[in-house]
Amino acid sequence: MKRVIIIGANLGGLTAAVLLGRAGWDVTLFEQKSRDGIGSPWVENMDLSVFDRLELDLPPADCYRKKKNWAFLSPSEDTTVVAFGPEESGEVLVDRQKLTDYLLSLAEITGKVQFDAKVTELVVDSGHVSGVRVDGQFYGADLTIDCSSVFSELRQQLPKFYGISPAPDRADMIHMVRSFYEWGDGAAMPKYTNKMYLRQGGSPRFSWCVSDVRDYCADVLVAKKGEVTEADIEETVEALRPGNPIIGAPDPREHADALTPVRQIISKMVVPGYVILGSTPSMTVPLLTPPLSDTMDAARILAEVLAVNDSCETDDLYIWQVRYCREYIAKQAAADVFRAFLLQTDPEDQDFLFVSEIIDGDFLSDLLNGDLPSITSKGRGFFGMGVKKPAVVNELRATLLQMEEAYNIVRDIPDVYNKTTFKKWQNDLESLIQ
Q: Which CATH code of 1.10.490.10, 3.40.50.2000, 3.50.50.60, 3.40.50.300 fits the domain covering 3-64+96-168+264-330?
């Protein structure tokens, strides 16, 4: 029986444990947190059709609810644009904590899950990852799946010749803090229940105000590059209150916070006996992180590849990386380009793009649905018309070309692993974030 060690009880790790355990692998999952410490209070978007692909029953009905469309407000708040999801979409809002509990209950049926167990070392023998050390004890495995954070020290322990991407710079991160407020006295249900504010009032922050109709409270997120302080939260909430009377007194629940890179490209995901399955960053619409189902699909594709050939050498595991890159990472890389554009563009310029309808509902809907957007016919008419901000339109056009380039580069990953051709592709991909 083949043995697999999974590091981290996030959704990707738990899904891999369920699928490989069901396929007959000897599964051990190590999680450094306690049983009560895993999961998070975030409610995030997810494609429910992933459970059909996984051939798993849907989670309990109280895990998810219908997803609402998002209303985006320009920095001046003079323009509101609504992004619609496709009618056939299976996306919902899912309670990440409850989904974690559901997957854990399945993982424990066919595998072993050890909590309060921190993996401190990847053990490499003769160029092959042969297992891990936990509290000084060695655990051997044919395959080790790393589902730890983007800051994982483990992957940085691997020999340099493997070519694993370095951990992201903590200074180049988006910090998100989410807090909750009681429903304001007498406040009516707003026209738009999910409102995203882009650089409100010219601030460096992004924020949202969501009308949580299940818990009957206001859900407020504050996000920016660098640290989000208590002063940032207070200033944002006060700026939101006039347009969101649903924001009442602070809810006693603690803040929930998370970090995600502005650009997150892991170009080398496999080495002999080892796979980086990826992470599930928290959703910060419109900063365009993928739905939770993407990471679960990563586990599904890996299980499918191992079902055909359970070899854990680079050439065989690489088949999984090719499929995942082409089906999912290409879209994420394109979204990363637009995320960087939003963070660095002057708020007045962003306001112009919304007021002029160059960025409209179709544009934002494409972004949220993982499609490459295009400038509207009205926007295309601005070229050569001598408008106030032709440079801004040209910058957006250049960004869209960069998004397409990023998408195509990822899709052009070599079909089979060859050190020379892969290194060229890897250099092209990593040059996108320089």
A: 3.50.50.60
